[in-house]
Protein backbone atom coordinates (compact mmCIF):
# COMPACT_ATOMS: atom_id res chain seq x y z
CA UNK A 1 0.00 0.00 0.00
CA UNK A 2 1.10 3.55 -0.74
CA UNK A 3 1.15 4.57 2.96
CA UNK A 4 3.47 1.77 4.00
CA UNK A 5 5.81 2.51 1.15
CA UNK A 6 5.98 6.14 2.27
CA UNK A 7 6.91 5.16 5.82
CA UNK A 8 9.67 2.76 4.83
CA UNK A 9 11.17 5.35 2.54
CA UNK A 10 11.30 7.78 5.39
CA UNK A 11 12.99 5.26 7.64
CA UNK A 12 15.48 4.41 4.97
CA UNK A 13 16.27 8.08 4.56
CA UNK A 14 16.78 8.53 8.29
CA UNK A 15 19.14 5.59 8.66
CA UNK A 16 21.51 6.83 6.03
CA UNK A 17 21.75 10.41 7.24
CA UNK A 18 25.56 10.56 7.55
CA UNK A 19 25.73 13.73 9.56
CA UNK A 20 23.50 14.38 12.50
CA UNK A 21 24.48 17.64 14.17
CA UNK A 22 22.21 16.80 17.09
CA UNK A 23 24.27 13.75 18.14
CA UNK A 24 26.91 15.91 19.81
CA UNK A 25 24.23 18.03 21.43
CA UNK A 26 22.48 15.06 23.01
CA UNK A 27 24.80 14.42 25.96
CA UNK A 28 25.98 16.87 28.52
CA UNK A 29 29.50 15.40 28.26
CA UNK A 30 29.74 15.88 24.50
CA UNK A 31 28.34 19.40 24.70
CA UNK A 32 31.08 20.17 27.21
CA UNK A 33 33.80 18.54 25.12
CA UNK A 34 32.97 20.44 21.94
CA UNK A 35 32.48 23.83 23.59
CA UNK A 36 34.78 26.29 21.81
CA UNK A 37 34.69 29.29 24.11
CA UNK A 38 34.48 29.86 27.81
CA UNK A 39 33.88 32.83 29.98
CA UNK A 40 36.05 32.95 33.08
CA UNK A 41 36.81 35.36 35.87
CA UNK A 42 40.16 36.04 34.15
CA UNK A 43 38.24 37.77 31.33
CA UNK A 44 36.72 40.48 33.49
CA UNK A 45 37.58 44.13 34.04
CA UNK A 46 35.37 45.93 36.53
CA UNK A 47 34.70 49.65 36.08
CA UNK A 48 34.41 51.67 39.30
CA UNK A 49 33.27 55.25 39.86
CA UNK A 50 35.08 57.20 42.55
CA UNK A 51 33.76 60.34 44.20
CA UNK A 52 35.07 62.73 46.89
CA UNK A 53 33.94 62.31 50.49
CA UNK A 54 33.79 59.60 53.10
CA UNK A 55 31.35 56.78 53.63
CA UNK A 56 29.57 57.84 50.46
CA UNK A 57 27.70 55.45 48.20
CA UNK A 58 25.64 57.22 45.55
CA UNK A 59 23.47 55.29 43.12
CA UNK A 60 23.15 56.06 39.41
CA UNK A 61 19.48 56.36 38.41
CA UNK A 62 19.98 55.04 34.89
CA UNK A 63 22.24 52.18 36.05
CA UNK A 64 20.49 50.37 38.93
CA UNK A 65 23.04 48.44 40.99
CA UNK A 66 25.97 50.70 40.03
CA UNK A 67 27.22 53.13 42.67
CA UNK A 68 29.70 55.96 42.92
CA UNK A 69 31.94 55.29 45.91
CA UNK A 70 34.06 57.52 48.09
CA UNK A 71 37.67 56.42 48.37
CA UNK A 72 37.29 54.51 51.66
CA UNK A 73 34.46 52.39 50.24
CA UNK A 74 36.25 52.06 46.91
CA UNK A 75 39.18 50.37 48.62
CA UNK A 76 36.89 47.85 50.30
CA UNK A 77 35.15 47.17 46.99
CA UNK A 78 38.49 46.71 45.22
CA UNK A 79 39.51 44.21 47.87
CA UNK A 80 36.27 42.28 47.38
CA UNK A 81 36.76 42.20 43.60
CA UNK A 82 40.34 41.02 44.01
CA UNK A 83 39.19 38.27 46.39
CA UNK A 84 36.72 37.12 43.73
CA UNK A 85 39.63 36.75 41.30
CA UNK A 86 38.91 39.73 39.05
CA UNK A 87 42.26 40.73 37.47
CA UNK A 88 41.75 44.47 37.03
CA UNK A 89 39.54 47.49 37.61
CA UNK A 90 39.01 50.61 35.48
CA UNK A 91 38.70 53.81 37.44
CA UNK A 92 36.40 56.71 36.50
CA UNK A 93 36.17 59.90 38.56
CA UNK A 94 33.16 61.99 39.43
CA UNK A 95 34.68 65.46 39.29
CA UNK A 96 33.08 68.29 41.25
CA UNK A 97 31.75 71.24 39.20
CA UNK A 98 34.23 73.67 40.78
CA UNK A 99 37.13 71.54 39.59
CA UNK A 100 36.04 71.62 35.96
CA UNK A 101 37.59 74.25 33.72
CA UNK A 102 38.31 75.17 30.11
CA UNK A 103 41.90 73.90 30.29
CA UNK A 104 41.08 70.72 32.28
CA UNK A 105 44.10 71.33 34.54
CA UNK A 106 42.58 69.17 37.29
CA UNK A 107 43.15 66.17 35.02
CA UNK A 108 46.88 66.15 35.84
CA UNK A 109 46.75 67.37 39.43
CA UNK A 110 49.11 64.98 41.27
CA UNK A 111 46.73 65.19 44.23
CA UNK A 112 43.56 64.87 42.18
CA UNK A 113 40.89 62.31 42.98
CA UNK A 114 42.11 59.70 40.48
CA UNK A 115 45.77 60.11 41.43
CA UNK A 116 44.96 59.76 45.15
CA UNK A 117 42.72 56.79 44.45
CA UNK A 118 45.43 55.03 42.44
CA UNK A 119 48.02 55.49 45.19
CA UNK A 120 45.62 54.20 47.83
CA UNK A 121 44.53 51.24 45.67
CA UNK A 122 48.09 50.15 44.87
CA UNK A 123 48.86 50.25 48.57
CA UNK A 124 45.72 48.42 49.69
CA UNK A 125 45.43 45.83 46.88
CA UNK A 126 48.83 45.66 45.15
CA UNK A 127 47.94 42.61 43.05
CA UNK A 128 44.90 44.19 41.44
CA UNK A 129 45.56 45.76 38.03
CA UNK A 130 44.64 49.43 38.01
CA UNK A 131 43.49 50.94 34.72
CA UNK A 132 42.96 54.68 34.52
CA UNK A 133 40.93 56.58 31.95
CA UNK A 134 42.92 59.17 30.03
CA UNK A 135 40.43 61.70 28.69
CA UNK A 136 39.44 65.22 29.61
CA UNK A 137 35.63 65.03 29.56
CA UNK A 138 35.19 64.72 33.34
CA UNK A 139 37.37 67.83 33.75
CA UNK A 140 36.07 70.23 31.10
CA UNK A 141 33.18 72.62 31.71
CA UNK A 142 31.73 71.70 28.31
CA UNK A 143 32.04 67.93 28.73
CA UNK A 144 34.11 67.48 25.57
CA UNK A 145 37.18 65.21 25.66
CA UNK A 146 39.52 68.02 24.70
CA UNK A 147 40.28 71.73 24.55
CA UNK A 148 38.15 73.95 22.33
CA UNK A 149 39.12 76.68 19.89
CA UNK A 150 37.08 79.86 19.40
CA UNK A 151 34.67 78.01 17.11
CA UNK A 152 34.04 75.22 19.60
CA UNK A 153 36.16 72.68 17.70
CA UNK A 154 38.10 70.19 19.81
CA UNK A 155 41.72 70.95 18.92
CA UNK A 156 43.87 67.88 18.54
CA UNK A 157 47.51 68.59 19.35
CA UNK A 158 46.94 70.93 22.28
CA UNK A 159 44.61 68.32 23.75
CA UNK A 160 47.23 65.60 23.29
CA UNK A 161 49.71 67.72 25.28
CA UNK A 162 47.27 67.73 28.22
CA UNK A 163 46.53 64.01 27.84
CA UNK A 164 50.27 63.33 28.10
CA UNK A 165 50.44 65.21 31.39
CA UNK A 166 47.36 63.35 32.63
CA UNK A 167 48.77 59.94 31.67
CA UNK A 168 52.11 60.73 33.32
CA UNK A 169 50.37 61.80 36.53
CA UNK A 170 48.52 58.47 36.55
CA UNK A 171 51.72 56.50 35.95
CA UNK A 172 53.52 58.51 38.64
CA UNK A 173 50.71 57.59 41.05
CA UNK A 174 51.26 53.92 40.22
CA UNK A 175 48.66 53.11 37.57
CA UNK A 176 49.47 49.81 35.85
CA UNK A 177 47.57 50.66 32.68
CA UNK A 178 46.68 54.02 31.20
CA UNK A 179 43.72 53.90 28.86
CA UNK A 180 43.27 56.85 26.50
CA UNK A 181 39.55 56.94 25.63
CA UNK A 182 39.52 60.33 23.94
CA UNK A 183 40.14 59.46 20.24
CA UNK A 184 42.58 62.31 19.52
CA UNK A 185 45.05 61.54 16.74
CA UNK A 186 48.60 60.68 17.80
CA UNK A 187 47.93 60.46 21.52
CA UNK A 188 49.18 56.91 21.91
CA UNK A 189 52.58 57.76 20.42
CA UNK A 190 52.90 60.93 22.46
CA UNK A 191 51.98 59.13 25.69
CA UNK A 192 54.29 56.21 24.94
CA UNK A 193 57.23 58.55 24.34
CA UNK A 194 56.54 60.44 27.54
CA UNK A 195 56.25 57.22 29.54
CA UNK A 196 59.56 55.97 28.15
CA UNK A 197 61.24 59.31 28.88
CA UNK A 198 59.78 59.24 32.39
CA UNK A 199 61.22 55.77 33.12
CA UNK A 200 57.75 54.22 33.07
CA UNK A 201 58.90 51.48 30.70
CA UNK A 202 56.43 48.91 31.96
CA UNK A 203 53.33 51.04 32.11
CA UNK A 204 50.82 49.44 29.77
CA UNK A 205 48.68 51.35 27.30
CA UNK A 206 45.17 50.16 26.60
CA UNK A 207 44.10 52.20 23.59
CA UNK A 208 40.43 52.84 23.02
CA UNK A 209 41.30 52.43 19.36
CA UNK A 210 37.83 51.92 17.94
CA UNK A 211 35.56 54.10 20.01
CA UNK A 212 32.31 55.02 18.34
CA UNK A 213 30.18 58.14 18.76
CA UNK A 214 27.49 56.10 20.44
CA UNK A 215 24.15 56.87 22.03
CA UNK A 216 24.80 53.94 24.38
CA UNK A 217 27.05 56.13 26.60
CA UNK A 218 24.13 58.09 28.06
CA UNK A 219 23.98 56.46 31.51
CA UNK A 220 27.78 56.78 31.95
CA UNK A 221 27.55 60.51 31.38
CA UNK A 222 24.88 60.62 34.11
CA UNK A 223 27.18 58.64 36.40
CA UNK A 224 30.19 60.94 36.04
CA UNK A 225 28.01 64.04 35.77
CA UNK A 226 29.23 65.14 32.34
CA UNK A 227 25.85 64.81 30.60
CA UNK A 228 24.72 68.26 31.74
CA UNK A 229 28.02 69.82 30.69
CA UNK A 230 27.88 68.29 27.23
CA UNK A 231 24.26 69.31 26.78
CA UNK A 232 23.26 69.09 23.13
CA UNK A 233 26.92 68.83 22.10
CA UNK A 234 28.20 65.76 20.33
CA UNK A 235 31.56 64.04 19.80
CA UNK A 236 31.27 63.38 16.06
CA UNK A 237 34.52 65.18 15.18
CA UNK A 238 36.64 62.65 17.10
CA UNK A 239 34.68 59.50 17.96
CA UNK A 240 33.95 57.13 15.07
CA UNK A 241 30.84 56.95 12.92
CA UNK A 242 28.86 53.77 13.78
CA UNK A 243 28.55 53.17 10.03
CA UNK A 244 32.26 52.41 9.62
CA UNK A 245 34.28 49.22 9.95
CA UNK A 246 37.37 49.68 7.76
CA UNK A 247 38.15 52.87 9.64
CA UNK A 248 38.40 50.88 12.87
CA UNK A 249 41.16 48.77 11.35
CA UNK A 250 43.10 51.90 10.40
CA UNK A 251 42.67 53.29 13.92
CA UNK A 252 43.91 50.06 15.50
CA UNK A 253 46.86 49.88 13.09
CA UNK A 254 47.95 53.39 14.04
CA UNK A 255 47.56 52.83 17.79
CA UNK A 256 49.62 49.64 17.59
CA UNK A 257 52.34 51.39 15.59
CA UNK A 258 52.37 54.15 18.18
CA UNK A 259 52.92 51.72 21.02
CA UNK A 260 49.59 50.40 22.32
CA UNK A 261 49.77 47.09 24.20
CA UNK A 262 46.05 46.34 24.02
CA UNK A 263 43.17 47.74 22.01
CA UNK A 264 39.59 48.33 23.03
CA UNK A 265 36.40 48.26 21.01
CA UNK A 266 33.56 50.35 22.43
CA UNK A 267 30.59 49.86 22.67
CA UNK A 268 30.48 46.08 22.75
CA UNK A 269 27.57 43.96 21.61
CA UNK A 270 26.50 46.13 18.64
CA UNK A 271 30.13 46.03 17.42
CA UNK A 272 31.02 42.33 17.59
CA UNK A 273 31.90 42.39 13.89
CA UNK A 274 34.56 45.02 14.61
CA UNK A 275 36.07 42.88 17.38
CA UNK A 276 36.28 39.91 15.03
CA UNK A 277 37.88 41.90 12.21
CA UNK A 278 40.47 43.43 14.55
CA UNK A 279 41.34 40.07 16.09
CA UNK A 280 41.66 38.42 12.67
CA UNK A 281 43.71 41.26 11.23
CA UNK A 282 46.13 42.04 14.04
CA UNK A 283 46.06 39.10 16.49
CA UNK A 284 46.75 41.42 19.42
CA UNK A 285 45.13 41.61 22.87
CA UNK A 286 41.65 42.84 21.97
CA UNK A 287 39.21 43.97 24.62
CA UNK A 288 35.57 44.99 24.50
CA UNK A 289 33.61 47.46 26.58
CA UNK A 290 30.04 46.49 27.39
CA UNK A 291 29.01 50.09 27.97
CA UNK A 292 26.56 51.74 30.31
CA UNK A 293 23.66 51.68 27.84
CA UNK A 294 24.09 47.96 27.29
CA UNK A 295 24.04 47.43 31.05
CA UNK A 296 20.97 49.63 31.39
CA UNK A 297 19.06 47.66 28.74
CA UNK A 298 19.80 44.30 30.31
CA UNK A 299 19.09 45.57 33.81
CA UNK A 300 15.80 47.22 32.87
CA UNK A 301 14.50 44.11 31.13
CA UNK A 302 15.62 41.97 34.06
CA UNK A 303 13.95 44.23 36.61
CA UNK A 304 10.72 44.02 34.66
CA UNK A 305 10.91 40.26 34.66
CA UNK A 306 11.16 40.26 30.86
CA UNK A 307 14.54 38.53 30.66
CA UNK A 308 16.43 36.09 32.85
CA UNK A 309 19.26 38.39 33.95
CA UNK A 310 21.92 35.83 34.69
CA UNK A 311 21.25 33.88 31.50
CA UNK A 312 21.29 36.89 29.17
CA UNK A 313 24.33 38.48 30.79
CA UNK A 314 26.37 35.27 30.59
CA UNK A 315 25.21 34.72 26.99
CA UNK A 316 26.16 38.29 26.02
CA UNK A 317 29.62 37.99 27.54
CA UNK A 318 30.19 34.60 25.94
CA UNK A 319 29.32 36.23 22.60
CA UNK A 320 32.19 38.69 23.19
CA UNK A 321 34.54 35.75 23.66
CA UNK A 322 33.27 34.06 20.51
CA UNK A 323 33.78 37.30 18.56
CA UNK A 324 37.43 37.36 19.63
CA UNK A 325 37.58 39.47 22.80
CA UNK A 326 40.30 38.52 25.23
CA UNK A 327 38.83 40.54 28.08
CA UNK A 328 35.59 42.38 28.69
CA UNK A 329 35.04 45.55 30.62
CA UNK A 330 31.56 45.23 32.12
CA UNK A 331 29.46 46.72 34.90
CA UNK A 332 28.34 43.14 35.52
CA UNK A 333 31.89 42.02 36.38
CA UNK A 334 31.28 41.44 40.08
CA UNK A 335 27.95 39.68 39.58
CA UNK A 336 29.48 37.48 36.88
CA UNK A 337 32.45 36.58 39.08
CA UNK A 338 29.98 35.57 41.79
CA UNK A 339 27.83 33.55 39.38
CA UNK A 340 30.86 31.75 38.00
CA UNK A 341 32.00 30.91 41.51
CA UNK A 342 28.55 29.52 42.41
CA UNK A 343 28.64 27.34 39.30
CA UNK A 344 32.05 25.82 40.19
C1 LIG B 1 34.78 59.37 27.66
C2 LIG B 1 34.16 58.12 28.16
C3 LIG B 1 32.94 57.59 27.73
C4 LIG B 1 32.69 56.44 28.44
C5 LIG B 1 33.79 56.22 29.24
N1 LIG B 1 34.70 57.28 29.07
C6 LIG B 1 32.04 57.98 26.66
C7 LIG B 1 31.79 59.37 26.35
O1 LIG B 1 31.24 60.10 27.17
O2 LIG B 1 32.10 59.76 25.23
C8 LIG B 1 31.44 55.63 28.31
C9 LIG B 1 31.37 54.37 29.05
C10 LIG B 1 30.02 53.81 29.18
O3 LIG B 1 29.05 54.24 28.55
O4 LIG B 1 29.90 52.85 29.96
N2 LIG B 1 36.10 59.56 27.93
Automatic annotation (TrEMBL):
GO cellular component labels: cytosol
SUPFAM superfamilies referenced in this protein's UniProt entry, alphabetically: Aldolase
Record: residues binding Mg(2+): 251
SMART domains on file: ALAD (SM01004)
GO biological process: protoporphyrinogen IX biosynthetic process
GO MF, one annotated term: zinc ion binding
Record-annotated active site: 211, 266
Top EC class for this record: lyase
Enzyme Commission (EC) number: 4.2.1.24
UniProt pathway: Porphyrin-containing compound metabolism; protoporphyrin-IX biosynthesis; coproporphyrinogen-III from 5-aminolevulinate: step 1/4
UniProt entry keywords in alphabetical sequence: Heme biosynthesis, Lyase, Magnesium, Metal-binding, Porphyrin biosynthesis
The UniProt record lists the keyword Ribosomal protein: no
Recorded family membership: Belongs to the ALAD family.
Subunit structure: Homooctamer.
Protein name: Delta-aminolevulinic acid dehydratase
